[in-house]
What does this fold into?
Amino acid sequence: MQESSISEKIKELRTDLKMNQKNFSVAIGIRQSTLSSYENGVVTPSNDVLLTIAQKFHVSLDWLFGLSENKVQISTLSDILWVLLQMNESNELRYELDINNKLPGDIETETHSLNADMCNFLADLQENRESLESYFTGKDMFDMWKKQTLEYYTSKPVTHKEIEELDFETRIRKRDELLTQKFSNNEQK
It folds into this structure.
């Protein structure tokens, strides 16, 4: 991969984050002049610097190297929560939360192991957001909660579904089997 591609990606990321060179360089632990050299393609960042950028700003190394169009890296629950927190801080988006704790007979938390963690996070987000917006806590406390939360959920890996490519007849047969199974389960209840 060309050094200029990496330099362009670093600059694109920094400008997308609306950060100046000084703030971005502080965030990744380098001098501003070093960052300028990276962005101008004069110096190639070390693997450690690239890894720091990827982890700090939740971007894919494949994206940084120009191997993928997917900028966001989602490999842990923390990565998903980071995206939700970014949405929460957007002026153009607002979402309200309606948290339903585990209901009797709810099998979602058994078959989807991170659902309970997600519900806990969303409840905490709602509480912390309301506390911030009503001036009960300051931005520093909210930022500390975000940092601690993201660090905690970094240890919760997520896997990606592999969607199999099926021919038309196989897809219809599998659909019919699934519908038959669902109807028989509904009749038993």
